[in-house]
Amino acid sequence: MSPRVEDGAAQRGRGRRPGGPDTRAAIVDAARSSFATKGYDKSSLRGIARDAGVDPALVHHYFEGKAALFAETMAVPVNPAEVIAHVIAGDRDRLGWRLVETFLAVWEPPERREAIVALARSSMSSEEAARMLREFLGREVFGRIAASTGAPDPQLRGALAASQMIGLVMARYVVRVPGLAEASPADLVEHLGPVLQGYLVDGPRRQE
Amino acid sequence: MSPRVEDGAAQRGRGRRPGGPDTRAAIVDAARSSFATKGYDKSSLRGIARDAGVDPALVHHYFEGKAALFAETMAVPVNPAEVIAHVIAGDRDRLGWRLVETFLAVWEPPERREAIVALARSSMSSEEAARMLREFLGREVFGRIAASTGAPDPQLRGALAASQMIGLVMARYVVRVPGLAEASPADLVEHLGPVLQGYLVDGPRRQE
């Protein structure tokens, strides 16, 4: 995984904090409420600032953008924009493998297992949560990755990739399906890499 | 889809009912409680009969087996054993496509959408629910399908297939990821069929 990913996680929230930690927490609370009630797409940094009773410049001071703020409300330990940039950068012929490798680098550390299970469960708990995840994944994650290849039909391609990655989270971390729960990251990359590559870049393998 | 699948759904619970509908409901209640507390593997039809205060022969009268009783407690509209038998029967070179086709035949009818969303959400809601799903899928569904091919490493193969099918349910029915939510069943079979075939039979596609 690129050092940028780790740097991003470490750098969030650093620097001068004119409003203090209470202000930052108020922004996160307002954002959580806005994402849950309006969804991801209709939430704006300006509206969140207003709800939190702070100047919009303060929101930009603490968070790189809406995706980073959303990640904060969901206790995601990295800045999604930086992770996605890392996946997209580099050889198009290795995109599928790189997506799986990068995903595992973010979520495999033992201290993050609990966080991803909580995230997965809460994302499935209600229509509001499903909507947030749908809009966020579509706009910030799989939409960007699929569009980066220039291949036709990026929306379906991104959605197919999303289905396999959501399934990986559910099967490995939440349900812990035997065989997948204890597979090594290298095995997962070997088996899932070509499938993601097929979904995102190459198209379906034809029956021989 | 095979007519057997529909027949199975229609025939469950038919015939003479010596104990009456209350007895049948008592068995289902006892089963639901047993699966939730002991998990799928450690629940037995004999123990469920005892909990329900009925003769074990009555459980066998109403339900073909543990899988059918589990399906009933989860409001699954078909007998899993019959669906799996249909998937396994037939050309090994088409197994992946047949799995996707059969799955969609069972779950695509509009009146079943709500049921599968409820099933998916409840399966993700707690550790007990995850354990039930894990044991049931491993023993009755993907374990059987993967073992039917005779290919090496059936547990990992079945688990990979499970991850994509769980992801399909979550992405299409629960999260409704754009692109996948509105894809036609034929498109899904075209894209997912070869992936399931690869997981279950052919092994990973090597990078060229």
From TrEMBL, chains A, B:
The lineage of its organism: Bacteria, Bacillati, Actinomycetota, Actinomycetes, Micrococcales. Residues 21-81 form the HTH tetR-type domain. Residues 44-63 bind DNA. InterPro entries: Homeodomain-like_sf, HTH-type_TetR-like_transc_reg, HTH_TetR, Tet_transcr_reg_TetR-rel_C_sf, TetR_C_16. PANTHER family: HTH-TYPE TRANSCRIPTIONAL REGULATOR RUTR, TRANSCRIPTIONAL REGULATORY PROTEIN. This is TetR family transcriptional regulator. Residues 1-24 are annotated as: Disordered. One of its GO terms (molecular function) is DNA-binding transcription factor activity. The keyword DNA-binding applies. Keywords: DNA-binding.
